[in-house]
Design goal:
15 helices, about 350 residues
Length: about 350
């Protein structure tokens, strides 16, 4: 009986809390009953899973052609990277994912985790670029697929966050010049879309460089993503700094802490904890926005799929299944980040309750 009562309470609270919520729930149930059988039939029952273009043509889109994924998955995941060397991006991506997962699940203490990052990132570039330890050199113009997406998103967030903290502190500075420079930077970058920043980094930046000098396109694009993300993150962090009660500053001063000591040990940790959801939302946005680099001839997941199908008339008509496969990869990544954000929020709530109890 307790389980039945608990289930009823959960349904009432989450699905039938008011008239609008109840109607929405019923409409979704009706839509599921109407569309779900056909979706299951298309996705599974009538689908073709073998890399057989003739079998997919015979089905004539009555079922999904997952054979296109089975046929093109290496091109989708690794882009134009040399076929015989694709074990290298596979190993590099695995190493980076292991460190990310270890960070999210708190599998390592701070010291070993920092050491893992310091080893994984150079190993990623060595494996991808080659030229060392007998590995064949592969130019960054041939990097693509999942490794490129993961690299742009990870480095974008790792480099943007500390820059955003500095800009947020600069905007709160009492010195006019740093405050003005940080304000101009934030307002300029936030006033343009990311795609224009990528165009500037890819095409305009080389023009203004001294003649005979050049910067790798991947480095320029990564820099554009970092600057763009940092501008948005800085406003999020500035909001967190303003949300810290003024009494915390007074308490830090009473303890004899200087301005930067108080900021390092008391103010900034509270501010960052308060804006965890917004910071993780920015991380999700960066992860998804990496698809825009296709416009500057860097072929991440979506661009790699376009290349894989562009020159193959047999599989070109089955692009929907390829995009669904890529969408699944993006969804897994975004869902994992959202769960990590939820864990950090719960831990922050427990820490606040502990501090309140001590007070």
């Amino acid at each position: 009986m307790n389980r039945v009562a608990t289930t009823r309470a959960w349904l009432r609270r989450n699905l039938f809390s008011d008239v609008f919520s109840g109607l929405t729930t019923l409409l979704l149930l009706a839509g599921g009953v109407h569309w779900l059988p056909g979706l299951i039939d298309w996705v599974l029952l009538q689908a073709v899973f073998t890399p057989d273009a003739a079998a997919c043509e015979a089905v004539d889109h009555a079922g999904a052609c997952w054979g296109v994924v089975a046929e093109k998955y290496r091109f989708i995941l690794f882009g134009r990277y040399p076929y015989a060397e694709q074990w290298r991006p596979l190993l590099a991506t695995t190493l980076l994912l292991l460190v990310i997962v270890a960070s999210g699940l708190r599998l390592l203490a701070c010291g070993p985790l920092l050491a893992a990052w310091l080893l994984a990132l150079p190993a990623f570039f060595v494996l991808m670029g080659g030229g060392y330890f007998g590995l064949t050199a592969v130019g960054s113009d041939l990097w693509g697929g999942l490794p490129l997406t993961l690299l742009l998103a990870t480095m974008g967030m790792l480099l943007a966050l500390p820059l955003a903290v500095l800009v947020a502190l600069g905007r709160q500075s009492s010195l006019p010049l740093p405050r003005a420079l940080c304000t101009v930077y934030v307002e300029l970058v936030r006033g343009v879309p990311l795609i224009s920043v990528l165009f500037l980094a890819s095409f305009l930046f080389p023009i203004i460089l001294p003649q005979g000098s050049s910067v790798d396109v991947l480095l320029r694009v990564q820099g554009g993503i970092v600057l763009f993300a940092a501008a948005y993150l800085s406003e999020t962090i500035r909001g967190g700094l303003q949300a810290v009660p003024g009494g915390q500053h007074d308490a830090a001063a009473a303890l004899g802490l200087g301005r930067w000591q108080a900021m390092r040990w008391i103010i900034l940790p509270q501010a960052l904890r308060a804006v965890i959801p917004s910071v993780m939302n920015s991380a999700v946005s960066i992860f998804k926005d990496t698809s825009l680099v296709t416009v500057v001839s860097l072929y991440e997941l979506t661009g790699a799929l376009s290349l894989a199908l562009a020159g193959d008339a047999e599989w070109r008509s089955f692009h929907l299944e390829g995009y669904l496969f890529i969408g699944l990869i993006y969804w897994i990544g975004c869902y994992a980040m959202s769960r990590f954000s939820r864990t950090l929020e719960l831990e922050g709530g427990l820490q606040r309750k502990s501090l309140q109890g001590l007070g």
